Amino acid sequence: MQHVDTLIYAGWIIPVVPENVVYEQHALAIQDGKIVGLLPNSEAVSRFSGRITHRLPSHVLIPGLINTHTHAAMSLLRGIADDLPLQQWLQTRIWPVEQACITPEFVADGTRLAVAEMLRSGVTCFNDMYFFPDVAGDVAAEVGIRATIGLIVLDFPTAWANQASEYLSKAKDVYKKFQHHPLIRTAMAPHAPYTVSDNALQEASELAEQFNIPLHIHVHETIEEVEAAEKEFGERPISRLHRLGLINSRLIAVHATQLQNDEIKLFAREGVKVAHCPESNLKLASGFCPVPKLSRVNIVTALGTDGAASNNDLDVLGEMRTAALLAKGLSRDASCVPAAEALRMATLNGAKALGIDHITGSLEIGKSADITALDLNHLESLPIYNILSQLVYAIGRDKVSDVWVAGRHLLKARVLTSIDIHELQAKTWLWRERIVKILQKQAKEAAQSSE
Amino acid sequence: MQHVDTLIYAGWIIPVVPENVVYEQHALAIQDGKIVGLLPNSEAVSRFSGRITHRLPSHVLIPGLINTHTHAAMSLLRGIADDLPLQQWLQTRIWPVEQACITPEFVADGTRLAVAEMLRSGVTCFNDMYFFPDVAGDVAAEVGIRATIGLIVLDFPTAWANQASEYLSKAKDVYKKFQHHPLIRTAMAPHAPYTVSDNALQEASELAEQFNIPLHIHVHETIEEVEAAEKEFGERPISRLHRLGLINSRLIAVHATQLQNDEIKLFAREGVKVAHCPESNLKLASGFCPVPKLSRVNIVTALGTDGAASNNDLDVLGEMRTAALLAKGLSRDASCVPAAEALRMATLNGAKALGIDHITGSLEIGKSADITALDLNHLESLPIYNILSQLVYAIGRDKVSDVWVAGRHLLKARVLTSIDIHELQAKTWLWRERIVKILQKQAKEAAQSSE
Which family does the UniProt entry place this protein in (chains A, B) (predicted)? Predict the structure, then answer.
């Protein structure tokens, strides 16, 4: 009889690896934050005894969901501007507000709000891109969620840095800060080809190489972006990135709605990963990422929510559903992106994109105990013929009951154990007051200047 | 001081009529199942006293959602066959199972499961099409939800009837049964042009005229349907329906993913209503309903979930979000189907399609108290800048707290007041056992016959 920290008896377990497998009446044993057993309940009874034991007979355990692209702190801007196209949304709404309100405190409170929402949605790991990444990393570490924090690089001044060289220098500092952290990793995060110069892109790429970390960038989000680049540089952004040495297996290409066949071949050959954000792309009318084409050539495609200002939620379970439905609709093939593939995109493929699939992304012995439990004993999930179908097509994130990250029970019967939800709500309301005042002031100034 | 049955003080009220209006700190007064007051909380205190008073300070009240196309009883088949195209799904999976298990008891239990799910999703009215419509109507009446029950017509035998003449004769009986019911109405419901002959279509149309009720039909769901009709009849289904006299203001055209410009003009001229089912169309890869084109010529477009076997939920709030996102993505215009329009599609337009917009579909004095309350005091809905944005883009149906139909409180702090949820769950599990046995038997027979 082996003594373990935690033993979970579950109705069903979907491990993601091996593929297309659903274990019924199985248990997971956890020791020192890692999975040490996955076996039938009937055998677990005699093989393991848990310091803590959970019985979740109507629940399914899946690998914790991975949000492969977000701007966590933007949760404080949820719903500030909707029904607008990307460039108008960015330039007339988001950037002016950000300029007026971004501080370390904003990033701390906004990231905490996002992390709380993500944990309640079954997310155990997120890939972030925002200002004050050191603060975002601190919040994630403090709450106990796994994160890859983007070391943002831009060519224009923000509250975080004044020019590319300062962003790059701060990137090095933040990389070092988290270098040995068990949960927090970093990625170079030049914002986009249209906001970062050749030199800074190259330096970011060299740092990614030197630190052995991913490089996370928005690319080919809209046709307008591609056309503007062709006009300005005489080449498409991906071609420019290729020339600068960024097209390689470290690259997480976010959005990628505009991909020609030669670009898809290039991505496949170089091992580029794609972060597909279907709901953000739909909402901002940015275009469609060609998911079936990507999977045909084995490009790793993961899922991201994007920030809450453009989605407007951080719901990876919902993103899975949208990705599956949208791929079917666009390809005119209802068998495209079946449920198991959608789940793999939201788990293992996210881990692969972040270079941490040896640690997380599936429920396998030796991997970190990053686990999400969903309760299927609700009207909305009955009857149960096919667990994978229920998970992807029928239920919502409100059915997430429990979440563990590295064995730590962060969501317990829907209660967050490492976040004070009342304090968080109060702070969010305070931010709302401040931001509404900023909006009113900006509207007044705009009215005066147009007089 | 006027005494009323119920007085609800709310944080916000979105009445849908007038358009684009959000009332803050307003109250609704209900007497004899109807709305008799809608006024600021501060005035309501001195004008009304309620026999029952509710204070919902963090809630928004909206008109109850209307599900303009569903097959309620198919909830018992949720997830039975996914990731398959429409005709294969229908012919090899759905129809054989239906043939083996449809009885009045199946329809009663399946409809009750669907109604329970819909009430918990904020739906106060649904437009159904299924077998044993008398049973579905009885269940809806017993629970207290508003419904339009489709009087189904087909050209082949089912458990409900053997040939068109019997379907039509039973249609008359069911029409009469509910003729004077306060909540239950009926619609003629010939299944689709490809399953109903000219004669039966014409007779159904004449009955709709005679009874003064809508006519509800699947039409132009896929390009395959249109092409097969062109081959068989030498004309497109809409042209055939037009020739047979069905294209008029009673018609609820479900799906309508294949519409040529002349067909859109015809619909606009004749006042045809469209039931758009975006998630079903995506999931079955059926095509895309051209919503922006329809709204440009003022065709009333409402929203439906379709049945739970092809969606796999009955979540009209989610359908609103998908309709708004999909229209933006397909039109490449992020301002297309803004939040207010999506909400109108899910409420007032549904009522117009069903010919009951004088009764329901908006929160106006004199209309029925069909009301849905959603609690926004959750992490997922904060901060609040724009209530309409939160409603359509950020939150899920789990935020629905209360539902009233004709003033009756059917969902109370998420508890169903007229359905025994434990009994319903137990029955659903029993149906699952029976249906799994049917599936196993059919698989065995198929294996034997292919040997």
Answer: Belongs to the metallo-dependent hydrolases superfamily. MTA/SAH deaminase family. Belongs to the metallo-dependent hydrolases superfamily. ATZ/TRZ family.
